[in-house]
Each structure stands twice: as structure tokens, then as C-alpha cells.
UniProtKB/TrEMBL annotation:
UniProt-listed CDD domains: HATPase_UhpB-NarQ-NarX-like
Protein's name in the database: Signal transduction histidine kinase
Family annotation (PROSITE patterns): HIS_KIN
Domain (Histidine kinase): residue spans on this chain: 132-335
PANTHER family in the record: NITRATE/NITRITE SENSOR PROTEIN NARX-RELATED, SIGNAL TRANSDUCTION HISTIDINE-PROTEIN KINASE_PHOSPHATASE UHPB
Protein's UniProt keywords contain Oxidoreductase: no
Length: 345
């Protein structure tokens, strides 16, 4: 958790007003070159440097050292030309990189938007399916169970065979009813639409308390969770749901702590005036943990990360063998509101 990219971002971000423009640096450097040249010419005139050099080089003329000043002059012009070419090249490269970075940023944003849309479509379809199962199949199953109960009552004294069949029918109907109930709950969490996210999560955790009596669960929720987009609400629910499913699979006897907090986001330099809330979900258990350096199967954690990143958030996992398991997701509270589909009538 220590190498939080948001922190490193903040450290490396330079305030735009403090960055000197390349043009002003060029002008300043050229001015320095001119000042140093004029100073050198003045010193040369004061100290008769050429005359001294001439007197000195005349003695070693056989080595052609008297040609040195001219040669050095050509060399310095050549070096200046070389430096200028490299400078132009570096600027061109910088511009190309900037264009590519902007392109990558745009593609990333588009990718996030599409992933978000895909998840929303999936949730929409799940909700639709849950409603269909409840309204259509549920009603008919209920009718079948009621009819079977009536047959059971009518045949009780006269038709033992029909009575037995009707009992089987009632049993099958209630089995299918329970199965469909489970499917509906998985497709669309109970209470999420009616009572909101905190109640739905409490209900979900209560379910696990019953199913895993050897584990202990604590759920802490702080802040206001109304007004979130449906995409964010369902994402937060699915994070906890998958995290608790993982606890049941890999850390069934452990102590599990779930936190969901809405808090003002850490402000970055240059964004002091912007007040943005973020939702932070953390789940930690003290179970056997996992070696994160080893390749892992499964799609749960990948799906969690994808959901969070599609909403412009960050997802981190921390664990070590015998050291428990922890995940933390941070998502901007207004995530997904802009992409909210128009209500369907
Ligand atoms: N709470 C946990 N405790 C220990 N290991 C875990 C926990 N949650 C996840 N893991 C490890 O991470 C792996 C990936 O989890 P996940 O992506 O949910 O896949 P799956 O649940 O299908 O195995 C698991 O196989 C397990 O090794
Ligand atoms: Mg899993």
C-alpha cells in the first residue's frame, strides 16, 4: 500500500506557473554567452592576450601551434552548430512524446468509458433478468404451489396416489422458488434500490455471519452514500460481495473488517480550491493470506480492479503468507454520474 500512485503523482507534479518556458531559457543562455564573450574580449584587450600567445607560439612554430586559435575558433563554431542540432532534435522528440502521451491519455479515457458502459449494460441486464424472474417465474411458481396445495387437500382422504404426487409437486415448486430467490439476490442485491447501499451491505454481511459462524465480521460505514451513480453503487456492493466470497473460500475462520467511508479527497497542488469527495472501501482479514508475487488464478480480483478503474478509481491489494489479506479501493464520489443513462419509461 505504500507505493500509492496518487502520492507519487503528487510528488512529481510540477506547478505549471513555476516551469520556465524553453524560449526564455534560450534567450537567457544566449545573453550569458554574449556577456562572457564581451568580458573575454575586454580581458584579452587589457592583457594583450593575442600578442602574448603570438610571442609564445612563435617559438614552437615548427609544431604549427600558431594555427591553434583559428582551429579552436572553427571548433567552437562547429560545437555550437552541433549543440543547436541536438537541441532542435530534443525539442522535436519532446513534442512527439507530448502528442503520443496525449493520445495515450485519450485512449485510456475512452477505454475507461467503454469498460464503464459495458459494466453498466451488464448490471442493467442483470437487474432486468432479476425483475423478470421475480415477476414472471415467481408468480407462476406461486400459482403452481397453491394449485398443488389445493390438490393435496382435496385428495387427502380419497386419492392417496394423487396426494403423494401433489406433495412431491409442492416440494419441487418450493425448491425451484428458493433457487430462483438465490439467483435474484445474486443478480440484483436485496434492498439496494429500496433502502440504499449501507442497508444492502449490512444485509449482505449479516448473510455471511449466518453462513460462516466461525468467522467474525465488522462493518463500519461513515458518510452519506446518497446521490451516487448506479454504476458506483453497484461497484461498491460488488467489491464487498466478492471480498466476502473470497473470505469464505480462503480465510473462513478469520476476523474480517470492512470499512466504507466517504471523505474529501486528498488535494493536489494546483487543485486546492476543488473539493471532491471520494469513497474508500477497505476489507482486511487476518487469515492465511497469499503470496502476491506468485501467479494467481481467478477473475474476482481482476474484475474488482477493472470495475474500480473503469470509474477512474484506484485498487490496491496487500498480503503475504500468514499475514492476512487486504484490499483497498478509492473511487471519486461523482464517478459515473455523467454517463448515467436516461431513465427508461
Ligand atoms: N481473503 C483472502 N485470503 C487469502 N487469499 C486470498 C483472499 N482473497 C483472494 N485471495 C487469493 O487471491 C486469488 C485470486 O482471487 P480471485 O481473483 O477472487 O479468484 P478466485 O476467488 O476465483 O480464486 C485467490 O486464488 C487466492 O489465492
Ligand atoms: Mg474470488
Amino acid at each position: 500500500m505504500s507505493n500509492d500512485p496518487s502520492n507519487s503523482d503528487a510528488t512529481h507534479r510540477t506547478h505549471p506557473t513555476r516551469r520556465a518556458s524553453p524560449h526564455s531559457t534560450v534567450a537567457r543562455d544566449l545573453a550569458w554567452v554574449l556577456v562572457v564573450t564581451v568580458a573575454a574580449a575586454a580581458c584579452g584587450a587589457l592583457l594583450d592576450v593575442s600578442e602574448r600567445a603570438y610571442r609564445w607560439t612563435r617559438g614552437v612554430e615548427r609544431f604549427q601551434l600558431d594555427e591553434l586559435p583559428g582551429t579552436l575558433c572553427v571548433l567552437s563554431v562547429g560545437l555550437a552548430w552541433f549543440a543547436w542540432r541536438r537541441y532542435r532534435e530534443a525539442r522535436g522528440e519532446l513534442n512527439r512524446r507530448r502528442v503520443l502521451e496525449e493520445q495515450a491519455e485519450r485512449l485510456l479515457a475512452e477505454n475507461r468509458r467503454l469498460a464503464n458502459q459495458a459494466l453498466q449494460a451488464q448490471e442493467f441486464e442483470r437487474r432486468h433478468l432479476a425483475r423478470e424472474l421475480h415477476d414472471e417465474l415467481g408468480q407462476y411458481l406461486n400459482a403452481i404451489a397453491l394449485d398443488a396445495a389445493r390438490i393435496r387437500d382435496l385428495s387427502a382422504a380419497r386419492e392417496p396416489e394423487i396426494h403423494r404426487v401433489s406433495l412431491g409437486l409442492i416440494q419441487s415448486a418450493s425448491h425451484v422458488y428458493r433457487q430462483i430467490g438465490g439467483m435474484i439476490r445474486r443478480l440484483r442485491p436485496i434492498g439496494l434500490d429500496e433502502f440504499g447501499l449501507p442497508s444492502a451491505l449490512e444485509h449482505c454481511v449479516d448473510g455471511w455471519r449466518e453462513r460462516l459462524p466461525e468467522a467474525s465480521f465488522s462493518l463500519t460505514i461513515e458518510g452519506d452514500f446518497t446521490g451516487l451513480s448506479d454504476a458506483l453503487t453497484i461497484t461498491l456492493y460488488r467489491l464487498v460481495q466478492e471480498g466476502l466470497t473470497n473470505v469464505s473460500k480462503f480465510a473462513s475462520g478469520s476476523r474480517v473488517e470492512v470499512f466504507m467511508v466517504r471523505a474529501p479527497r486528498e488535494r493536489r497542488p494546483g487543485q486546492e480550491d476543488e473539493v471532491i469527495d471520494e469513497i474508500v472501501v477497505t476489507m482486511a482479514d487476518d487469515g492465511p493470506g497469499a503470496d502476491l508475487a506468485k501467479p494467481r488464478g481467478g477473475l474476482g480480483l481482476i474484475g474488482m480492479r477493472e470495475r474500480v478503474e473503469a470509474l477512474g478509481g484506484e485498487f490496491h491489494v496487500a498480503s503475504k503468507p500468514d499475514g492476512g489479506f487486504l484490499f483497498c479501493a478509492r473511487v471519486p464520489a461523482q464517478a459515473g454520474l455523467a454517463d448515467e443513462p436516461e431513465p427508461v419509461n
